[in-house]
Design goal:
The structure holds 2 protein chains of 2 kinds. Chain A contains 9 helices and no strands. Chain A is mainly α. Chain A is flat. Chain B is an alpha/beta fold. In chain B, strand 9 and strand 10 form a beta hairpin. In chain B, helix 5 packs parallel to helix 6. The chains are: A mainly alpha, B alpha/beta. Chains A and B meet through helix 6 and helix 7 of A and helix 2, strand 6, helix 3 and helix 5 of B.
Chain lengths: 218, 240
């Protein structure tokens, strides 16, 4: 087996720049997806039938279809339907946000349900309104228990963000592919890309372990 | 004053309360007693609408609170509750537990709320626990903190749902002492309890519940000396 890293070497900084792109896609989508997922979870535990129905239908659609399909639909269908030319950035962030929101809403719903019922009753018995009770009493306790699951979701999203390369987003994978087609060397740039993803995921995993330990002791 | 009119409550096909009517005058201490499963806690929880009666009406201060559109939040600021399982907020310090509702619901200034909170913690003997988180308190301390939290809203009525049932025996007394210190200070108290000695000592009036019916409504001394009904008599013979 012949590996020719020497010819790839000048292109390594170019691939490395993709790390930032991947992290921005992941970070921004995760943040927005968390906000959206929180609302969806609140809909799910609410007593309003329409909201409950909407959020569970929404979740089943986004979990029941391939992310790549969702990405292509948003990237290609929005210009066709609205005439608005959506950028790769917008399409990527929008798709990842909508998709991770569905998964995160399930995680948060589980966390809310795991909080003792007495907590809400105690809050209500003090005259605290439902929204305040949720925000200050229930959600802070729910978030503690679901932090590890949220880290797992961020790991998933980090890897799945590579789908953006299909619609030409210049992330790690896309850059590795460009280098490959310029040099006719495939194995080396893809190996570098794989290594980068692996290192990023390992960093997240270690962070999650430290966090879990801290939560257990406190 | 609290007025209950023909309260029914069912969970699915199980009817827990089968038409309970009664009147609790302002400032009175009422103990609700009866066998397990008689509906005591459900009745108590109907007074602040943690359980919505299937039918019947609940009046607090002549306002029907079980009507649709009644301001339940406002009612609940007048009716405090102490739970069997304490239900302190574990992510807040003891002091924050006590002052959270005055801060958010009454919009009290933080400074005033902290003064009030410290005063109440002193009253229940937890002055030095203000900055401690509830998981680090003993059961008795938790329940005393929960009482301080309920008092912080300066309620007219306070409901106790088996306040000592989850406590180790050696901690029962300290909690009962605190509850006793509140009796006959103007606040109306409704206590669901299995502590017969305590009920006898503290209550003005006894409601004896059995199988979802209010079987007997008597003044305390009379009830324990000579219960009117056979069922109450049989119950007392078993537990005393």
């Amino acid at each position: 087996m012949l590996l020719d890293f020497e010819r790839i070497w000048p292109s390594v900084p170019y691939i490395l720049e993709g790390v930032q792109v991947t992290l921005v896609y992941t970070g921004v989508s995760l943040f927005l997806g968390f906000l959206w997922g929180t609302f969806l979870a609140l809909f799910k535990v609410s007593h309003v039938a329409v909201l409950k129905w909407f959020s569970s239908f929404y979740t089943s659609v986004f979990r029941g279809t391939p992310l790549l399909l969702q990405l292509m639909l948003i990237y290609h269908a929005i210009p066709q339907l609205t005439g608005y030319t959506i950028s790769v950035w917008e399409a990527g962030i929008l798709t990842f946000t909508l998709n991770s929101g569905a998964y995160i809403s399930e995680i948060i719903r589980g966390g809310i349900n795991a909080v003792d019922k007495g907590q809400m009753e105690a809050a209500l018995s003090l005259g605290i309104s439902y929204p305040f009770a949720m925000k200050d009493i229930i959600l802070p306790q729910a978030l503690r228990t679901i932090l590890p699951s949220l880290v797992n979701e961020s790991i998933d999203l980090l890897k799945e963000s590579s789908l953006i390369s299909v619609i030409t987003g210049a992330d790690i994978l896309r850059r590795a592919n460009i280098v490959a087609s310029e040099t006719y060397l495939y194995f080396e740039p893809l190996l570098i890309a794989g290594g980068l993803y692996y290192v990023l995921v390992m960093i997240l995993t270690m962070g999650a372990r430290i966090l879990e330990k801290k939560l257990k002791t406190s | 004053m609290i007025l209950l009119e023909n309260i029914h409550k069912s969970f699915g096909s199980l009817e827990v309360l089968k038409g309970i009517s009664g009147r609790i005058p302002r400032g009175e201490v009422l103990a609700i007693i009866g066998p397990s499963g008689s509906g005591k806690s459900t009745l108590l929880r109907s007074i602040n609408l943690l359980e919505t009666p299937t039918s019947g009406k609940v009046f607090v201060d002549n306002i029907c609170i079980s009507d649709k559109g009644a301001n339940i939040g406002k009612l609940r600021t007048k009716v405090g509750m102490v739970f069997q399982q304490f239900n302190l907020f574990p992510h807040m310090t003891t002091l924050e537990n006590v002052i959270y509702a005055p801060l958010k619901v009454k919009k009290m200034a933080r400074k005033d709320a902290e003064i009030l909170g410290k005063k109440l913690l002193e009253k229940v003997g937890l002055k030095d626990k203000a900055q401690i988180y509830p998981p680090n308190l003993s059961g008795g301390q938790k329940q005393r903190a929960a009482i301080a939290r309920a008092l912080a809203m300066e309620p007219e009525v306070i409901l106790f749902d088996e306040p000592t049932s989850a406590l180790d025996p050696e901690m029962v007394k300290e909690v009962l002492e605190v509850i006793k210190s509140l009796a006959h200070t103007g606040i109306t108290m409704v206590i669901v309890t299995h502590e017969m000695g305590f009920a006898r000592e503290i209550a003005d009036r006894i409601w004896f519940l059995d199988e979802g019916h209010l079987v007997e409504d008597s003044m305390s001394q009379k009830f324990f000396k000579s219960p009117k009904t056979k069922r109450a008599k049989a119950f007392l013979e078993k537990v005393l």
